[in-house]
Every structure is written in structure tokens, then in C-alpha cells.
């Protein structure tokens, strides 16, 4: 019995190392094979950009990919629907349309149209939404069945996160009016976290760099900006255009800065999420590209670099697990701070008059 207990961890460790070295061998051999097949030199920049950019098909591995629907509407031709496989990865045209260098659908005759295509990022967002809806309906059903009982299963995993957003994000940042903003904060937190987890690395099968698309992060930041602006009370706008307790001559300097800050806040939200998620993907892909670069030299060089590259990729993958949660938390936390500043009530009658030194410190 004792010997069997000792053998099991050893066998598990052997399987882990075997899988790791098989992965190394596959990468090194594939790099050397690709180098032999290509007539032009491997371009790491083009490869990285291709993997982190949006696409009209869902890349799995090698030349294997899943085509996605292309949906186009033009006033003269109406709706047109076909699969992206018709383009053959941009090598051919179909029905008067083709893919340009930026992987966008372009009309050959130059007519205007609206592109409603389901790209890889759009498909990943839909997958995240479906998973979140299924998860929370399941949790809601569990709460109804197990009233008064401790959480169990998926409920026990998600409940601490919900309480974390409520107690550590919403309440301290917004105050008594936090309940009004809880649905948005929970939605944005779990959506960013789930989407990041699904596309944690674009080199994995089915990976999509959704939050590495600035249009997505801009949309999320815009929603926070709209909610902040609509919720803002008169005290908020008074502090923006004429901060109390500040000399009039200082307002000529302070008011433009405060007004600019109203628009800089969502801009910072957008850039922070976009840059952090994109940077992690690019770094991980860069280490993988090293294997292919050295694979053009020899199999031995690819083998030598593979050990270091894969080790760094594994490290980045573990780090990205933390970053996925951290970026969701930061976005929700900053949104809550903006909401709190917009709805905060001020009673300037009870404030003591500021000295010039205090006023300078406030500025």
C-alpha cells in the first residue's frame, strides 16, 4: 500500500515531463519543417500581428481553421451571407468581395456596404456571453434550491467573487448608493475575466485576443463614461467647472484640467486594459517565434532555444492567469471610483475655511 502511494506521484511526474519534452520536440521539429518548406525568411513580426489581430476564421493549429460567417449589407444588393472559407485565406475573391492586407472585407467595385461579419473576436464575445448566462442561471437555480444551506459546486466558486466585488469594490468606492451600480460592476468584472480566460494566449487552439482589440476596450470604457456622466450630480459638475474653496484666478488653470480629466478617465481605462492584455500575448508569442527563427538554422538550434522559450511561455501563461483577474478587478474598481465621485454628496457649509497654504495643497 505504501509503495503504491509513492509510485503514483512518481508516475504523474514522469507523464508531466514526458508531455513537456514531446511538446518541445514537436515545436523544434515543426520549426525545422516549416523552415524547409518556406521559400522566404520567417517574419516574426508578421506572425505575431496575425495571431493577435482579429480574423474571419478561427485558427486551430497549422493550416487547420474553422470558417466564420461573413454577413454584408449594401443598399443596392441587400444582405449577403457566405462563409469566410470562400476567400481561401485571402487568396481568392467571392461574389465581388475579397480580403485586403488588414484582413478586412473590401468590395472590388468600390461600392459602400456595412460589414456585420462574425469575426473571431465577435465569436469569442458570444461564447463568453453564453458561458456567463449559463453559469449565472445555474447559480441562481442553486440558490433557490439550497436556501439557507452553504454554497456548493460552482456556487461556492462564484459567490466569493461576487462578495469581493460588493465588499471590496462597490461599497468602499461608491458608498450607500452602491446597489444601483452592482449589476453593471458584476457584469463588467465577469465579462472581462471570462473573455480574458478564454483567450489567455492566442497561440492556443481557439484563442482570441479580444481585450487586445482597442475597439472592444473603447466600448467598455465608453459605457463607464456614459453611466458616470448620466449619474453625476450638481456637486460633481461644480467641482469640475468651479471647485469650491479655490481662488478665482486658479480656476482659469484648474477648470480646463478638471474638464479634460472627465474625458481622460475613460481613455485611461481603455488604454490600460488594451495595453496590458496585448503586451502579454505579444511577449509569449515572441518567445515561440524564437524557436522558428533558430529552426531555420538547424534542428539543434531549435531544440536549444525550445527549452528556454517554452519555459518562459509557461511562466507567462501562469502570470496571465493572474493578469486576467487583475485587469477585470482594476477596470471594475476604477469604474466604481468614477461612479462614487459622480454621486458623492458634499456639504460645503460645514467645511472649515482653507488657508492659502491649504488651498495650494489642494490644487
Oligomeric assembly: single chain
Number of helices: 10
Shape: globular
Instruction: Characterize the largest beta sheet: strand count, sense, and whether it forms a barrel.
Output: 3 strands, antiparallel
Helix residue percentage: 55-70%
Secondary structure class reads: mainly alpha
Beta-strand percent range: 5-15%
Task: Domain count, please report it.
Answer: 2
What letter string, H or E per element, gives the SSE order?
HHEEEEEEEHHHHHHHH
Give the end-to-end Cα distance, rounded to a whole number of Å: 73 Å
Strand order of the largest sheet: 4-3-7
Uncertain residue segments? 1-39, 349-363
Mean pLDDT equals 78
Summarize this entry quickly.
The protein has two domains: 69-117, no CATH class; 121-362, no CATH class.
Summarize the structure in words.
- The strands form 3 sheets. Strands 4-3-7 form a 3-stranded antiparallel sheet, with no helix packed on it. The chain has a two-stranded antiparallel ribbon with strand order 1-2. The chain has a two-stranded antiparallel ribbon with strand order 5-6.
- It has helices at residues 2-37, 44-52, 120-145, 154-174, 182-198, 214-231, 234-241, 248-295, 299-343, 356-362; strands at residues 57-61, 64-67, 69-74, 78-83, 97-99, 105-107, 114-115.
- Helix 1 (2-37) crosses helix 9 (299-343).
- The protein folds into 2 domains: 69-117, no CATH class; 121-362, no CATH class.
- It is 65% helix and 8% strand.
- It has 10 helices and 7 strands.
- It is mostly helical and 363 residues long.
